[in-house]
Amino acid sequence: MEAKIFFGSTEATKEQKIQRLSPYNAKVVSTAPVCDAEDTNKALKIAQQAAKAAKNTTLSQRCSWLLDVASKLKEQKEDMARTITDEVGKPITFARVEVDRCIETITLAAETMRTMHGETINTDAMASGKKTMSFFRREPVGVVAAITPFNFPLNLIAHKLGAALVAGNAVVLKPTPEAPLTAYKFAKMFIESEYAIKDALSVVYGDVEVGSALVSSDIPRVISFTGSVPVGNIITKSAGIKKVSLELGGNAATFIEKTADLQLAAKRCALGAFVNSGQVCISLQRIYVDDAVYEEFASLMTQETKKLKVGSPYDDDTFMGPLIDDDACDRAMGWVESAIEEGAVAMLPPRREGRVFYPCVMCEVRDDMAIVCEEVFAPIVSLVRVDGFDDALLRMNNSPYGLQFSVFTNDLNITKRAIDELEAGGVVINDMPTLRFDIQPYGGVKLSGVGREGPKFAIEEMTEIKSVVIC
């Protein structure tokens, strides 16, 4: 099936197209037009005009719009899940979970916007002031440019579209080249809704040329990007004076303290390290284990990893399917082989079948090895010995990334210190750092990004505050 361009509410295509092959079996699963800067600028100009109308629509209409899409998505859940599996190889069970989360995300965006409001201000609070009627309110920014990645090709679109559209903006979406059909089907639900705001959503496909045109244009007021640090750096330098929200890479870590429930920790760490084949920004990559329980935990972690079914993403009981492409597999094997050469031990021998890379637990890893210094974005987790929490704290924070960390412990003092002293956008106690609820603020510090997602917090990013004084 072919994904189509949306120039506002109007479908279009182009002669030049690109095929998307399944990461699992290399079959053609979708095609999409190849857009260029001219197409992007056309979509932006349409959005610029549509934003004027969108701003003047009622909140009731915009909330009904999102809820109507949520209803349609619920009806077409299995088709959408299958499309996700086709295009990015996500196991079908987890693709269904992503659809469910998407439904919740856009529903929550509608419910959140109903209750967001401004405040009155006491302008006579200081001696230099006087009594007035003063307040502030939130207004849409105008045009939002949304750029999304392959690992959650539906729900990460929802986090951007839901917040932007319900706030009264127009959006130009550039979805990942790996999942054009997923984005097209989702966008079509918005555009064909009876509550749709004409031309408020456009969709263009492409990579560097399209992304550069979006970011450098003077039309968008907000750039909302989820992706890699190098691209985030380029966006920051070329965006100009506009809001930029970046959800970038991570190198998620946890600490296994000696009082922790080791069986629970191993089970949750195996899930956090290997779900979605490790292709998650908050995928667990570094496990710092107290020396007193290192051997026991390493054994439990290996046992839990062996239980995970790896294979066809179309089987309901498959936990882990393929990586996104051959380059990702080559990089993963390179990480493991390099670590072994430097003295690390693979508890499970590295194994690859096509683009399916089997989960790998690496022990006796040191902090100076590349496998823990960089984001691997693959099903590889490293266990590092530490001498207590102070040692772990220094090592966890000694990273250019700071998205999410966690600690497994039954020591209240360590819990409080972890919350206070870990340098990350999120801290989880007694679960994997890969845990995320869509209602929460989500984002990082350091190179992991700026700004926050989660409907309430994204709406704040995609609105401006207007201050009013009536004398």
Overview of the structural elements:
- The chain has 471 residues and is α/β, with parallel strands linked by helices.
- The chain folds into 2 domains: 5-248 and 448-470, 3-Layer(aba) Sandwich (Aldehyde Dehydrogenase, Chain A, domain 1), CATH 3.40.605; 252-437, Aldehyde Dehydrogenase, Chain A, domain 2 (3-Layer(aba) Sandwich), CATH 3.40.309.10.
- Helices cover 40% and strands 22% of the residues.
- It has helices at residues 37-55, 59-75, 77-88, 92-115, 155-166, 180-191, 208-216, 229-238, 262-274, 294-306, 326-341, 370-373, 388-397, 412-421, 455-461; strands at residues 5-7, 10-12, 17-21, 28-33, 119-121, 133-140, 143-147, 170-174, 201-203, 222-226, 243-247, 252-256, 284-290, 345-346, 352-353, 356-357, 360-363, 380-386, 401-402, 404-408, 426-429, 445-446, 449-450, 463-470.
- The strands form 7 sheets. The protein has a 7-stranded mixed beta sheet, sandwiched between helices. A 6-stranded mixed beta sheet has the order 9-8-7-10-11-23, with helices on both faces.
- Helix 4 (92-115) packs parallel to helix 5 (155-166), helix 5 packs across helix 15 and helix 9 (262-274) crosses helix 10 (294-306).
- It is globular, with a radius of gyration of 23 Å.
- 53% of the residues are buried.
- The mean pLDDT is 97.
